[in-house]
Please model this.
Amino acid sequence: MKAILKSDNFSFFYGRKKVINKITMNIYEKKITAIIGPSGCGKSTYLRSFNRMNELITEVFQEGLIMFEEHNIYDKSVDVVALRQQIGMVFQKPNPFPKSIKENILFGPRLHGEKNKVILSEKVEQLLRKVVLWEEVKDKLEDSAFSLSGGQQQRLCIARALAVNPKVLLMDEPCSALDPIATLKIEDLMSVLAKEITIVIVTHNMQQAARVSDFTGFFNTDETRIGELIEFDQTKRIFTNPRQQATTDYITGRFG
Amino acid sequence: MNKHLREKMLTGLIVFSFLLVIFFLVLILGLTFFNSWGTLSLNFLIQMPQNGMTEGGILPMIMGTLLVTLISAVFSIPFGVFSAIYLTEYAKDTPYTRLIRLSIRNLAAVPSIVYGLFGVAIFVKFMQFGTSVLSAGLTLGLLTLPTVISASEEALKTVPKAYKEGAFALGMTHWQVLRTNVLPVAMPGILTGVILGLSRALGETAPILFTGVAFYLPKLSINVMDQFMALPYHLYIMSTQHHDIQGVKGIAYSTAAVLILISLLLNIVASNLRYHYKKGLKT
Model:
C-alpha cells in the first residue's frame, strides 16, 4: 500500500493562533480516508492544508511537512496552481458556478487549454456518467446548474473536480447539506471513484465514516482549541476496537 | 396619541414625500422639454451655432461633451476597476488599506471645482497638455474614479466566496478566477457605478472650466489637444452670459434637454449591458 500523502508533525497556524498540532498520518493511494471529530477540532483546516486552500483567506503559517508523492507541498518551489489541479476538492455546500450544467464540467478543462470540441463533449458525457447524473440531465445540459437538486448539484461538483484529472479528491463534509437518499448516492459514488483515485473525506457523520472509509483518523481538541490527531487506523479497528478512551467515547456518542 | 392616528399620519407623510419628489421630477422634465419646443430638432443636433450663438445648432458642444466623456471613461474605467480589484482581492485588511478605502469614499464627495484646480496644476501646466480636450477629459476621469472604485468594490464583494474557492480548487490562477468567476458576476454592479460616475462627469462644468472648455469656437475640431465647447458650459453661457438671454432661451433649454437625453441614453445602454451580463450567467 502506497502512501500518496504523508503528513509529518504538521502544525498549522492562522496568524499566530495554532489550530492543529503535530499531525502525523498517511493517506493511502486509492483508498478512502475519513477524518472525524467534534466541531472545531481542525479537521477541515487539516483537509484544506493538502491543497493549500487555507492561505486564500488570511495570513497562515505551518510547521512540519506534508509530502505529496514525495515532494513537500509547502516548499517554495511548489506551484500551488498545479498542486490544486492534482488535489481536487468538493465543498460542504454544493457550489456550482452560475453557468450551464455542461459549462460547469468543462470549466476546468477549458481553462487548462482543451479546445477540441469532440473531446470536450465526450468529456461531459463520460464524467456525468461517472457521477451517475447523465440519465437525469442529458436532455438539459444547457440549463443552469442551479436548476438541479442539492444532491445532483453535489454530484455535478464532483464531476467538475474530476474533469481536471486529479489524483486525490478532498471532500469537506460533502453530504452535510443533503438528504439521506442523496447522501447514499454520494457514498456509493465514492466507493466507485476510489478504484481510480484517492479520497479524503471530512465528516461529522460517524456512520458515514464507518460505511465508506478504509482508514479513519480521529481528531479531538480540548480547552486550548488546538486540534490533535488522537488515533489513526483502519476504519474497522477504529469502530470496533479503538485504542484510546476518547475515541471510544466519541464513536459511542458520549460527546461531540 | 392614538396609534391608529399616528399610523395614518406617518403613511400620509411617506406618500406626500413620494409625490413631492415625483412632482419636481415631472416639473424639471416638463419645463425643460416645454421650453425647448420649437428649437429642439434633428437640425439642432447636427448644425454649428450661428449668428453669435443665437441660431443654429449645438453639434460642437455635443461632440465636445462626448469626447471628454469618452476620455474620462477610457481613463477611469480600467484604472478604477483594477484598483477595486486590488482592494478587494489582493490588499490585506490593515489599518492602512482601511484608511485608503475611506479616503477614496471621501474623494467622491470633494467639490468638483477642486478637481478643476487640480487638473490645471497637473494636466494643463505640469504635463503641458494645455487647455484641451485631453486635460479636461483626464480631470473628469479623476472625478469619476472614486465612484467607479467604490461601486466596483461593492460589486466585487458581493461575489459569493464559493465561486472563487471552487475555481481555485480546480487549479486556476488568480487572474483566471477573476476573469471567469468574479468579474462576470460583479459586472452589472460595476457598470452601474461606471454609468453613475460618467453621468456625473458629463454634466460637470467646474472641472472643465479651467482645463479646456471654450466660450465659442468657430470650427469643429476632434483633435484632443484643442480646446472644445461642451453642453453644460454652453448651457451656463446661454442662461447667464449671453447678450440676449431672453432670445436664446430656447437654445438654453434645448441644450439642457440634450444633456438629459444623453444621460438617459447612457443609462439605457447600461441597463442593456447589465441585462446582457445577467443573461450570460445561468442562475
Notes: Chain A has one domain: 3-97+167-251. The two ends of chain A are 32 Å apart (CA to CA). Chain A touches chain B through 33 residues (CB under 8 Å). Residues 117-130 of chain A form the longest helix (14 residues).
